[in-house]
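Justification of computing resources. Each target in the renewal requires a structure prediction run like the one illustrated here; the chain below, 300 residues long, is used simply to show the kind of job we budget for.
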Amino acid sequence: MSALTLWKNSPFAKQLELSLSEWVNPHSASYLPPEERVAVFDLDGTLWCEKPEFAEFAFWRSELQQALTQSHHNHHAAILNVLQDIEEDLYVLAAKFAHLYRNVHQGTSSEQYQQRVRNWLSSILHPRFHQPYEKLTYTPMKQVIELLQQHGFRCLIDSGSTDDFVRAFGEELLGIKPEDVLGSQLNLHDVSQSMVLNIGHQKVKQLQQLTTIKPILAVGNTFSDVELIKWAKQREGSLTAFVSHDDDAREYRYHFGPILDIELKTALRNTHQISIKQHWEQVFSFQEILVGKQIETFAV
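Resulting structure tokens:
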């Protein structure tokens, strides 16, 4: 019986179980010694929901809105400006939010930041699903991580969210240790330092600094993960995939984008596409497991 009970008719899941049986078999030509068993995952849109905006954006927005209620702050005008900003470039907007957050919460330590994140995750409800943000991890992907870890794999997160943000919950919600989290670099103490975004080649660079072992498995969901996936594919026998958001009933529907579409038809043509609608029996733990039942639109 398959260990991936929340997956259905998924070429990725089938290949994973087939490959895994070879990777851990000492008599197989594809056997991997324990120190070479490395898997890497993007976070937002790969392991948990990233809509209607990245969770760390929502956290910053919530914290800044809270600051508006406190009369002792002298950043009210700046907060109002950034909250009303319609900047379309997400990375420019992230830099603005991060810079202002540091100004408003000067002197915040990593530990304090992480505790604020944990408090927010458990108390603030997602605007569509009306569940705490900590409930928005994808249960099928958690099954993949758990299965790999049961077979001695080191599972890493390589995210565009900041490392302090992800380390606040990575182990509790996803089973990923703090030392196995890579993310954007945000110096909480020095507002003069710009945030270093962990996207594109930066994801590969940080991973290379952490381990000399190329991952045998890598999963992402956007163009910012392409370099990471391409790097993983250089390893013979590797398994790679992109999560496709095509289920507006249980989650959201949005497109890969034209550039990633081209990559998936050319350099990444052998990369699996994981369809949320077609391949997952459940998306979130608070939803019913379908097991062949018809999908009904989630109440909003």
